[in-house]
User: Fold this.
Amino acid sequence: MTDAGINFHFDVDGDDFSSAGAASVEVKKNLRQLGFPPDVIRKVAIAMYEGEINMVIHANGGTADVFVLPDEITMVLRDQGPGIADVSLAMQEGFSTARDNIRSLGFGAGMGLPNMKKYTDTMEIETELGKGTKIIMKVKV
Amino acid sequence: MKLDQLAKELSLCHVCGSLDKEATNVYAGDLLSWVMSHATEGDVWITIMSNVNVAAVASLTEAACVILAEGVQPDAETVQAAQQKDVTIFSDSRSAYELCCCLGAILKNG
Assistant:
């Protein structure tokens, strides 16, 4: 790996649950090939997956960029969805605005953002109502 | 315990995936985000969820296999996703509780 690291970019389709998780699975595969420890890979995969699912459920898709350095993995998720009205409320376990049809698929438990925070070392949320949301997560190796 | 032995002992219906994996523990749950954060590598994951996302969660958590309880059957899309991600799926008519009891006994002894 060079000092500049390795970057991955993914487009996440909105309302397409069949491909949700594709970016996470791909990142996981790549990190494993690069020889990262299993616990680091697990953290990144969980955070990425939750982020992907959130973009599919709430924001009609978006993009995911992953920047890989030997000592740190950064994930940047961007969407042009409705934004998060109350971030502190959204961060509470169990709070969800997901529709019933989403809940019937096993999502909408209000665990997405809490899981993303739990499994990363830092998480920043930039959100604007009607404009979208950008989430930056870092996992230290 | 290898999945082929586990499948024989429990008479599980094999839907797809390799039987040459090692099962070490059991996890039961249907909320996918919850499962994502609690299931671990080598788990036999018991659920009644059968949509395509089950394959992604099983793959990401590195569960040894998925057992669809209560007679739930996966749709073709789920099977296809599982095959692509090398996820092993069984189905069984027993409840999650009954399967947990059976698995607890054979994994303890095995």
User: Anything to note?
Assistant: The beta strands of chain A are 6-13, 61-69, 72-79, 122-128, 132-140. Chain A is about 35% helix and 30% strand.
